[in-house]
Fold this sequence. Notes:
The structure holds two protein chains of two kinds.
Chain A: H1 13-23, H2 29-35, H3 40-49, H4 84-100, H5 109-119, H6 124-127, H7 130-143, H8 148-156, H9 159-164, H10 178-187, H11 202-211, E1 215-218, E2 229-232, E3 242-243, E4 252-253, H12 261-275, H13 278-291, H14 298-313, H15 322-329, H16 332-335, H17 347-357, H18 369-385, H19 414-428, E5 433-435, E6 438-439, H20 444-451, H21 466-474, H22 484-495, H23 503-514, H24 519-538
Antiparallel strand pairs in A: 1-2, 3-4, 5-6
Helix pairs in contact in A: 1-2, 4-7, 4-18, 5-7, 7-8, 8-12, 10-11, 13-14, 13-15, 17-18, 17-19, 19-24, 22-24, 23-24
Chain B: H1 3-14, H2 22-29, H3 32-38, E1 48-54, E2 64-66, H4 70-76, E3 88-90, E4 93-98, H5 103-110, E5 114-121, H6 129-138, H7 150-158, E6 176-179, E7 195-198, H8 201-208, H9 222-251, H10 266-279, E8 286-291, H11 309-331, E9 337-343, E10 363-368, E11 376-377, E12 387-388, E13 400-401, E14 405-406, H12 407-418, H13 423-430, E15 443-445, E16 450-451, E17 469-472, E18 477-480, E19 484-486, E20 488-491, E21 496-499, E22 505-507
Parallel strand pairs in B: 1-8, 1-9, 5-11, 5-14, 6-7, 6-8, 15-17, 16-18, 17-20, 18-21, 19-22
Antiparallel strand pairs in B: 2-4, 3-4, 5-10, 9-10, 12-13
Helix pairs in contact in B: 1-9, 2-9, 5-11, 7-13, 8-9, 9-10, 10-11, 12-13
Amino acid sequence: MAYLDTYTTPLMASAAAHLLRRATFGPTQQEINDFTGKTAAQAVDLLISNASYRATPPPPIEMDPAMSDAGQPFLGQPFRDSRSYSYFNYTKLWWIGLMCEQNGRLSLLEKLASFWQNHFVVNYMSIEDYRFVYQYLQLIRSNALGNFRDFVCAMSVDPAMLVFLNGNENSKEHPNENYARELQELFTVGQKDANGANNYTEQDVKAAAQVLTGWQTQNRRVEGSTTFGASFSTSRHDTSSKTFSVKYNNTVVQGRSDETAGEQELRDLVKMLLAHPECPRFICRKLYRWYVNTNITPEIEQEVITPLASFFCSAANDFAIAPVVKKLLTSNIFFDSKNVGAIIKSPAELMIGSVRFFDQPVPDMSTKYDAFRKFTTFLSNSMNMLQLNLLSQPSVFGSLPYYQTGYSRNWINETTIGVRGSRMDCFVNPSIEIETGSKLGIDILGRLRRLQPNFTDVSGTPAITCEQVLADFLKNLFPIEVSVAQRDFLIDSIMMMKSSPRSTWTREWDAYRLAPNDTSKQNTILWRCRALYKYLLRMAEYQLF
Amino acid sequence: MKRRDFLTSASALIAPMVLDGFRIKSFAQESALVRSLAKAGGLNTDRILVLIYLAGGNDGLNTVIPLEFYSEYYGLRSNIAIPESSVLKLSGNPQTGLHPSMVGMRALYDEGKLAIVNSVSYPNPDQSHYRSTDIWMTGVDSNKYATSGWAGRYLGDRFAGYPTGYPNAEMEDPLAIQIGQISTTTLLGGAQSMGVTIQDPNAFYQLIGEGNAAFDSQVPCCDAGELLSYVRQKQLLATGYASEIKIAADAGRNLATYPDASQKNELADQLKIVARLIHGGLKSKVYYVELGGFDTHAAQVGTTTTEGVHAQLLKKLSDAISAFQNDLKLQGTEDKVLGMTFSDFGRRATSNASKGTDHGIGAPMFVFGTGIKRQLVGTNPNLVSGLLPVTPTPGVSNRDIKMQIDFRRVYSDVLRDWFGINEAKGQAILYQNFNTTSLFSDTVVSIASGVWHDPSIWSSGRVPTLKDFVKIRNGHVIEAGLNVFAKELKVEPGGELKFLGDFTLNVTG
């Protein structure tokens, strides 16, 4: 089995669930059903083509009902510094909403966009202008599946990035090396190759900084301004030719002085960076860690990273991103059982995955903006508590568990394990009100009623059993199988609380069937099933995906 | 998986006990608190290390200002230079001063409780935040890699087998506590963190509840199985330690005044918790706290150079450390606690045009507590002859501060002189032997042959004075071309002091 060859077996439910857990923030049961039976290639083609459906969603709006312009878009309005943080926050909530929604067109766009947002990091706290952050986020969303070369070029002169890594302060008299370094170390070639040799020199940092001189941003945080952006100024640009080290084959980026000098030299620079043999490997490793497994063995390096990188930079592919993602997500190695459940869920996969798995409807942003805000704020706050800060990562490296030794294990420590549990409790014991009379949470009774054939025919149709209830709760819940001993424990010790035989359940259930509106009968069922769900969602198995 | 293990691993999580449930356990088990209260004096005497990470790479030259080179200092960074008159002067040390925000730390220096280790770095420095931080945390050469942290390796050696069998009767408390969110590499042991990461002891207890468990289980193969074991173990350790941490937090008291909430001093908030846990008798050996924001590429100063981001950060640092040290003093725990700061790297001596500084090399570390025997290691960075590149090529204006002291020499002293481990263990933990800095000793030893007046041949990185016991070690030939001074001089067999002329040795005895 060549690792990177296409997995051709039609997808069983477990394989479909695996693909969707990784390619998106987590599937619904319906989506798992819909994808079962497709080939991996069909499934991934669909996940890619569905991205176009949300290419240009309606823009974020004012979500505070107390404001006079509630429900109205704010991006076209003159800049208001006093509202900047709120508008940034709505932009983030808007993105979280896109990650959660269930529109029948499941796509891999937002998960891949969040990969790139963690790659080309910008932190709002350094920008403080919502327009910059929205434009940056849209740049990411529109290039996520595009061409990496164009993406790097555009990102290098993106207004938010110019501010975040001080590119706007980089001039011929006073070069600022911040972006030039991160462009090489973090965005393209990586710091070192697999043998520990540096991929570039300090001189290359300085030379790249010279190439990038001359760019500035306009109207950041200027009250009342209606335009903003970045521009190139020839007077700030270093027009000399820039010589790079042997690491880049002594490439010389020819100095230019006209209005197009900035763009042309940038294009040359990026071309040189992408021609570095480590660049495609660096990006492919990062994609592998994001989608497949954080553990890259020498075998994986040879059998997966090397051919994937060759494909990425091949003349035919020419740094197109979508075909690389497709190749990875349809590969034998992706579906290898060793890679199922082999990553710890990020806070996004935990929170958004749970919202989707438990069919929590996303309130319509334009008509129910207050409910939308509450819903997405719950997720945003929860992810922050669990150390994922979208659009505000703690450093230019992105979130620590994506690069630090131990990788996804870093999401888990003594405190976050407790917070994860308490957040999941919100799904089990509904407490977060989204709209008047409507709380976020699992509809346990509805779920059981659908499981029970002929619900009202108590005498003629036998009650669903404890075993059936547990099997239903466990269906596609974990990436790995639960043993018989664990199932027995879950029924006898948790659901039946070590005090009642299993037959008690059927009596209680039938009593509820006979009087479905009797709250004491409902509560008996909820008491047992909530205990079971609370336990299941705090299990280590639920932390893996 | 054994059913019992499965039950114990998570059953505690489903029904956290009520808040004062811990009392039952504490008396039943004779916890740290119970035992320590039973002893006269109440507190155990074990030594503690508090690590303060300044995330982003602190600008050392605006933190500890070499007044003896003030005009060169100003020339390198006129747009961010602290005016000479604003620099805080140090008692008995007119050549050096502190940033004007550091009033509290200046007082600690003047009381003899703060040491400055100058121009700390490592050979072949790396200017990537990630890689350089990794080097500092793992304690490796810059061309080598390790997956464990230096403090984690120390704890792993001292508490063999952790986490299997922990907590136990000998060590019922976490080996280390990190106040924060994501576990630091510094505390990583061979397989996992040797520390427990908490944000707040009470919140932690409420979150985790109480548990009691031994763990041994079967899991599926490969990475998924390993991750499953890892998460389960974290659940067990959390439940196992939650009550002990809460006991200590409840028993401990903060006796000093810390910066109030309006100051938003997150470092002070963290150190306040640390002080409470120490006072409450928690036996943890290492505490780890963090202050971020030091990556000041632009606008590190404000309208005047004594205000702005860096001034605020240094104020937080200084206020927090001085409140913490005062708290320890009032608690009577001062003598068993040592504190130390570190950062990604220093920043460039030359400022950039954005009123900021780019990534650099050497920078000072602070070591504080009553345990230090020396307040200066290394000299002020020599801004005339001690910059890199030594002779800049035409057109190159950027200069860096050359290393004087390898950071692992400080680690080595902490391990050997503070924690008291032997040379062989120190070598095993830090992968090689490092010369002492004499930070915890009144004796300065030679570390190489050379000229007496060359600071780099002495362990303290400074030319000995009349206050120093001096020892010339076996194999070292020290040549004196000037009069030399010492409190006492000892020449080991095989060592030699050679006078190159008619000079005198002045010994006060």
